[in-house]
Structure formats: structure tokens, C-alpha cells
Design brief:
The protein is of the alpha+beta class. It is 25% helix and 31% strand. It has a single domain (8-137), classed as 2-Layer Sandwich (Alpha-Beta Plaits). It contains two helices and seven strands. The chain is elongated.
Length: 144
């Protein structure tokens, strides 16, 4: 019986579990982008965003977007939501450093020279500020 590389779903679920443990400021962490954030803020989403073949023992390389979602309600103040986003961005970057050698993910990194992307979506009538950070992962065969 041949060993197989874990699916992106399994890796997304593992990243979600680690973020829930390491970054307790998030009110909710999803291993996907849900249709509704149900007003939660700050929220975190993990979504698949790329695939590439790799070399043994890494059959595949996966790319994920880690989304940091902050409500932009007028009562909360724009500068407050920006400050919260900035603080959480530092925590996500530190999370990547702390988990770079995680045995279940093998390699987890933010690609050098890849800037995060931002948007200002309205979800269920609620204005949000979201920043997507790219994480790359090369799970080894038989891991996760």
C-alpha cells in the first residue's frame, strides 16, 4: 500500500486547529470562507488558493490564503479596526514563524516578496476589512 500526500482539506483543517490554539483573539476560525461571518470580528478564514507538483518526499505544494476579517462599523471607529488588523497581522506572521517546523505540515511559510492583499467587502450588510496572507505548505508523504 502506497503512502499518499494529505489533501488540501486535511492541511486546511490542521492550520485551523493550530490558529485556534495559538491566536486566541479570533472570535471564530473557519477552514473555508463561509457565506456569512455572522457578525463575528475578528474572524479568520483559511482557503485553498493554489497547487503545484513537488519532489519527493513532497509530492505536492499547497498554497492557502489566511484571511483576517475585521468589522468596520462606524461605532467601532476606522482607526480601531485598522489597529486590530495590524496587531493580528503581526500575530499571524509570528504564527507562521512558530509553526515553520510543525511536523504535520513540514514547511509552512509566507513566500518572500509576496505582499498580502486587502479588500473592503460588505458581508450580510456588515462592512469588513479583510487582509489575505499567503501561506505555502509542503506536507510530506504520510503526514497529517
Amino acid at each position: 500500500m502506497a503512502l499518499t500526500t494529505p489533501s488540501r482539506q486535511a492541511v486546511r483543517e490542521r492550520i485551523k486547529d493550530l490558529i485556534e490554539t495559538d491566536i486566541t483573539e479570533f472570535e471564530v476560525v473557519h477552514d473555508h470562507i463561509p457565506r456569512s461571518l455572522e457578525g463575528f470580528s475578528p474572524a479568520c478564514t483559511i482557503s485553498s488558493s493554489g497547487f503545484a507538483p513537488g519532489n519527493q518526499p513532497y509530492r505536492y505544494e499547497y498554497r492557502f490564503n489566511i484571511g483576517i476579517w475585521i468589522r468596520r462599523d462606524l461605532a467601532a471607529g476606522v482607526s480601531s479596526s485598522e489597529d486590530t488588523l495590524d496587531q493580528l497581522m503581526v500575530k499571524v506572521a509570528q504564527f507562521q514563524i512558530d509553526n515553520a517546523a510543525d511536523a504535520t505540515l513540514h514547511i509552512l511559510r509566507i513566500p518572500v516578496g509576496q505582499f498580502s492583499t486587502t479588500a473592503y467587502p460588505v458581508v450580510d450588510g456588515t462592512p469588513y476589512r479583510v487582509e489575505f496572507v499567503i501561506f505555502e505548505c509542503r506536507p510530506a508523504v504520510g503526514v497529517v
